[in-house]
Design a protein that fits this description.
By secondary structure, the chain is of the alpha/beta class. It folds into 2 domains: 7-69 and 175-261, Nucleotidyltransferase, domain 5 (2-Layer Sandwich), CATH 3.30.420; 91-173, no CATH class. It has 9 helices and 6 strands. The protein has a 6-stranded mixed beta sheet with strand order 3-2-1-4-6-5. The longest helix is centred in the C-terminal third of the chain and has 16 residues, at 239-254. The radius of gyration is 18 Å and the shape is globular. The relative contact order is 0.20.
Length: 281
């Protein structure tokens, strides 16, 4: 099953420490062309990661949900997720591995990253040259080579653009959600499916250069480029929220097109180990 969904959910994610996270944003687009709508968090302090998982588990009907983090570390480049350490060799078992070795609240994974896996992460100059840690998945290299920009690696833990903390926390949530959702491409798509998304790639599908959206005119233009009505009263939105809104519309636009479910570089080995970012050819 591809494309025949009732709801298209985009989640701008966070791997920050703590239980509530103001940077998490959730948007939902229904069938048709109406503007996606933001889902308000249960608390004024923001979403907990576990609350996002629980909310998804209770959504009715056919749902396509996208999370903005890397679903697995690189595998193909070095033949292992964490060379030198004992670890599973497929995505779902690796998620379970991360979950078992993490004791942080709200699905955080800092304890995993600071534990036995610590030598694989660049956390500053004391770890040596950053270039030694820059390992990428096949889909990330493909995005970079196609002029999409510079995708981040899950082994870089420093700076606002790092995706390491969000990704390893997200892997714990994928381990939970796989009980009720297919996780593509590790699983074939089903009536309830989770995919990996990348905000910059989705903004490019909207006709822009992949730059962050911070005003009403840019948001209207991006949604129009995806065949969506304008979002009402966009004043005061942050770029986490605009990313989620545009990505929900992009999922709705791309999901019915079979090619996005079978990108040219996606081999069975990559589908089993690294996964793929939905919307990257």
């Amino acid at each position: 099953m591809t494309g025949n969904y009732d709801a298209f959910v985009a989640i701008d994610w966070s791997g920050a420490k703590g239980v509530r996270h103001r940077n998490i944003a959730v948007a939902v687009a229904g069938r048709g062309t109406a503007a996606p709508m933001l889902v308000q968090p249960p608390s004024p302090a923001g979403w907990a990661r576990g609350e996002v998982a629980a909310w998804l588990e209770t959504q009715p009907g056919r749902v396509l949900a996208g999370f903005d983090f890397s679903f697995a570390p690189p595998f193909v480049e070095r033949g292992a997720y964490l060379p030198g350490l004992a670890a599973p060799e497929n995505g779902p078992d690796f998620w379970s591995h991360v979950d078992t070795l993490s004791d942080d609240p709200d699905y955080g994974a800092a304890s995993f990253m600071a534990g036995a896996a610590r030598p694989h992460f660049w956390m500053g100059a004391a770890d040596g040259p950053k270039a030694d840690f820059l390992h990428f998945r096949v889909c990330e290299a493909r995005f970079n080579e196609g002029g999409g920009g510079k995708a981040s690696t899950v082994f870089d833990c420093v700076g606002a653009a790092q995706v390491a903390k969000a990704s390893f926390a997200g892997m714990r949530v994928l381990h939970r959600l796989r009980q009720s959702y297919a996780i593509w491409p590790f699983d074939p798509p089903g009536e309830r499916t989770v995919v990996e998304i990348y905000g910059r790639a989705m903004l490019r599908h909207a006709g822009g250069r992949g730059l962050k959206i911070r005003d009403q005119a840019a948001l209207d233009a991006a949604l129009a480029g995806l065949g969506s009505a304008s979002f009402p009263h966009a004043g005061g939105l942050n770029d986490n929220q605009t990313d989620a809104i545009v990505t929900a519309a992009a999922l709705r636009r791309l999901a019915p097109e079979p090619g996005w479910w079978a990108p040219g570089g996606l081999t069975p080995q990559i589908a089993r180990t690294e996964g793929w970012t939905f919307g990257i050819a």
